Amino acid sequence: MPSEVIIATNAAVEVAAERENAVVLAKSLTIDNQDGITDRVITLQDVFAPSNYYGAPTPIPGQDIQRFRALVVAGDIITWGEEDLKGVKCLGAMKVGPTVIDGGVGDRCHVTVGYEHE
């Protein structure tokens, strides 16, 4: 199972790329906000561009759908396993996005996401 560790800043970060005829399944998620000085809301986002169809505007705008959302208070660490994330799947690329802008040098939140393509 591939995994990715990111530092949650103020922009969404792609964790797993979109693959044709496959979905991305979230298998594990750890949010480590022990070094954080602000509370964080972390989301798993599904980012994809729908296929064109007859009569559709060209190009069809991409979709950005929130599949999972978690609040982690400053100084806390939370882990979700495969059973907890059952049903969290992305049709396109999986991105991790925080909703709190990074508070500076001392404000760090680390997110580890385990995933697989199916």
UniProtKB/TrEMBL annotation:
Annotated protein name in UniProt: Uncharacterized protein
Source organism: marine sediment metagenome
